[in-house]
Amino acid sequence: TPPTNDGGTNDSGTNGTRANGSELVRFDKVTKRFGGTTVLDRLDFSVSTGKHVTLIGPSGSGKTTILRLLMTLVRPDEGTIRVDGDYLTHEERGGQLVKAGDRHVREVRKKIGMVFQHFNLFPNMKVLRNVTEAPVHVLGLDKDEAEQRGRELIELVGLTEQLDKYPSQLSGGQQQRVAIARALAMRPQVLLLDEVTSALDPELVAGVLDVLRDIATTTDITMLVVTHEMNFARDISDAVLMFDQGRIVESGSPDKMFSDPEHDRTREFLSTVL
Ligand code: ADP
């Protein structure tokens, strides 16, 4: 069934100007199944522009699948996903919404940046080139401009001294900070962070979280975060969504969620991670 355009809202926008407090990410009745298992069950949620939303919940509850849907690494079985008013899952052809083609998906996905658990840097490129490669080759940015911006981002993640090193010469924490700079270099409107510290040695975690706190407070980028670092979640989140078995069981401000959760499932989960 084709999705309906809710409430007659015109999503097309003009020159990137959107209504204040607009929804940058919106899932409508998104269902994802793997084999016979329903991993996400008619999921509705949205993230407003500039907000930081954290997804928490037990392993297997569907959190990573949400980020992978946004990166179009997987496609939903049902429902629609919109980013900045544009459908990621669908496109308009002859006045009708049809399943999005690859080209349309590539365009909408440019609005999204992601940092993975395993940083996946280009091993044969130095730090600066890791950050400038995609802006030059995908966005078509002028090389000097990309380098200037790259240096700024590398400074933001505290790696100016490492500019000329290869990934193998860096610690895991430093590599992850390069991955953060690389994602930001594409000027995404929303940054997805998937367990970005869980592959790091414990002593390297704080440095990466400090950089992310800094980005959360000094930039206006929208963030969608999956993490088991509850103190970090509490610090940076505007809202926390608690998942269980592919559904949101509870959502609210970090203070409410961490100090006074409503649901047994949330209390149970928090008692295992706090
Ligand atoms: P979380 O991030 O909350 O740990 P995931 O979104 O990774 O949860 O996974 C949700 C469920 O979907 C799990 O049961 C997982 O095994 C299953 N799953 C995820 N990706 C795939 C896949 N590509 N094929 C089959 N099952 C998958």
From TrEMBL:
Residues 25-270 form the ABC transporter domain. Residues 1-17 have a biased composition (Low complexity). Keywords: Amino-acid transport, ATP-binding, Cell membrane, Membrane, Nucleotide-binding, Transport. GO terms for cellular component: plasma membrane. One of its GO terms (molecular function) is ABC-type amino acid transporter activity. Gene3D superfamilies: P-loop containing nucleotide triphosphate hydrolases (3.40.50.300). InterPro entries: AAA+_ATPase, ABC_ATPase_HisP-typ, ABC_transporter-like_ATP-bd, ABC_transporter-like_CS, Ectoine_EhuA, MetN_ABC_transporter-like, P-loop_NTPase. The keyword Repeat does not apply. Residues 1-22 are annotated as: Disordered. It is found in: Cell membrane. It is a peripheral membrane protein. Belongs to the ABC transporter superfamily. This is Ectoine/hydroxyectoine ABC transporter ATP-binding protein EhuA. It comes from Streptomyces hainanensis.
